[in-house]
Specification:
Transmembrane segments: 14-33, 45-65, 116-135, 155-173, 179-203, 223-242, 296-316, 328-346, 352-372
Strand order of the largest sheet: 1-2
Distance between the termini: 48 Å
EC number: 1.17.99.9
Shape: flat
Order of helices and strands: EHHEHHHHEHHHHHEH
Number of helices: 12
Structural class: mainly alpha
Helix content: 55-70%
Keywords: Cell membrane, Disulfide bond, Heme biosynthesis, Iron, Membrane, Metal-binding, Oxidoreductase, Transmembrane, Transmembrane helix
Main location: membrane
Protein name: Cytochrome c oxidase assembly protein subunit 15
Number of strands: 4
Length: 403
């Protein structure tokens, strides 16, 4: 391979990438400012938080596209591409690698996909810096009696900023450790946590801006909401493990697998966590039975998760509370079933695979939305209906929040 002499970490283009992230972030920042001219700083911060959540969701979707098109090693170093800020400067190195391995991990197309993902991530990082600065300014103004108290502590965006930096570190390790399954899965988990952190802030700030109270849920229903969120989170981890180990096609029939309800599986191999891609810790190749175990555990867990989501939707509608999140959960559950089934029986089509990841991320956003907009307490009649903002992850028009 021509990239063996290239250092895994080459910080030469770091400053240019940071400046590019600022330029990318200027677009959303200017848009929020223009759409909210004459509004209060509190309104600006709320609108920017909603928009950052939306763009972060898009980033997670593009990250799935990057992984599923095998573009994760399109540039074999970090943070640039062969020590350059873009694939344009690395044209010669990429061409040499592509000529040596035309279907290998380094091609011109894959390099651009990988670098665009990094550019977008840097832009989101700059937006979160702006959120953090804005939150601390709002806190200081409130202490001086020059504005309302913030809906959440400014430590929320501060921790979010820390988390996005940590997420960037895992993105670097994803490249330098050559798609190590555990690292790639942790990178996916980090993206989901980032969405949840931003969603809490978007919901609470929107509730505060609209002077709406939290929805009261009975203790049992709120416990079910928490339990379902935990189950969906665990299922996303299992799904990430399936994807990063390329175990989707270990079972190509449904509902049975390989003509059996309990196919040959090697659980010890499939769930040996710390190992290179396609290999075991002793250097031998993971068996097909190991890949089958990874796939089938995710499928069996899906039945439990679908049941929990169906029960939660039914309980929410029966209680007459959080009806908008309940509708979203019902629709997303159907989407997940349809895209998951398509991945199995249609030979893992790219569109279905990306939508499956996006649906999982959207489920976490909606569940977090419901948790952040509710509290434990008795529900009387329809008192809890429409006490929450529209979904903050669906963009400005879908959310009906002018940003």
């Amino acid at each position: 391979m021509t990239d063996t002499a290239q250092p895994l970490y080459d910080l030469a283009p770091l400053l240019r990438l940071m400046l590019l992230g600022v330029v990318i972030a200027l677009g959303p920042l200017l848009w929020v400012w223009l759409r909210n001219r004459g509004s209060t700083p509190v309104r600006h911060l709320q609108a920017l938080t909603v928009l950052t959540l939306f763009l972060t969701f898009d980033l997670v979707m593009f990250g799935a596209f990057t992984r599923l098109t095998d573009s994760g090693l399109g540039c074999p170093d970090w943070p640039g591409c062969y020590g350059n800020a873009s694939p344009v400067g690395a044209r010669a190195e990429i061409s040499a690698a592509q000529e040596a391995m035309p279907t290998g991990p380094v091609t011109h197309g894959k390099a651009w996909v990988e670098m665009i993902h990094r550019y977008l991530a840097t832009g989101v990082g700059v937006l979160i810096i702006a959120l953090t600065v804005g939150a601390w300014r709002q806190q200081r103004a409130a202490r001086r009696g020059q504005g309302p108290a913030p809906a959440l502590s400014p430590w929320w965006p501060t921790f979010t900023l820390f988390w996005v930096c940590l997420q960037g570190a895992f993105g670097a390790l994803t490249v330098t450790m050559k798609l190590f399954p555990a690292i790639v899965t942790l990178h996916l988990i980090g993206g989901i946590v980032l969405l949840a952190l931003l969603c809490v802030q978007a919901v609470r700030q929107t509730l505060s801006a609209q002077a709406r109270a939290l929805v009261a849920l009975p203790g049992g229903l709120r416990a079910l909401l928490w339990a379902t969120t935990a189950l969906v989170s665990a299922q996303i981890v299992l799904g990430g493990w399936v994807s990063t180990n390329y175990a989707v096609l270990a079972c190509t029939t449904f509902p049975a697998c390989q003509g059996s309800w309990w196919p040959d599986m090697a659980f010890a191999q499939g769930f040996q966590i710390w190992r290179p891609l396609g290999l075991l810790q002793d250097g031998s190749h993971i068996s097909f039975a190991g890949l089958t175990a990874i796939h089938y555990v995710h499928r069996l867990a899906a039945y439990v998760v679908i049941g929990a989501l169906a029960l939660l939707v039914w309980r929410l509608r029966r209680a007459g509370a959080l009806r908008d999140p309940a509708r979203w959960l019902a629709g997303l559950t159907l989407l997940q079933f349809a895209t998951g089934l398509s991945n199995v029986v249609l030979d893992w089509p790219l569109v279905a695979a990306v939508l499956h990841t996006g649906g999982a991320a959207a489920l976490i956003v909606v569940l977090t939305w419901a948790l952040a907009a509710s509290r434990r307490g008795p529900v009387t009649g329809t008192a809890g209906v429409d006490k929450v903002p529209h979904p903050p992850h669906g963009g400005a028009e879908a959310a009906k929040i002018p940003v």
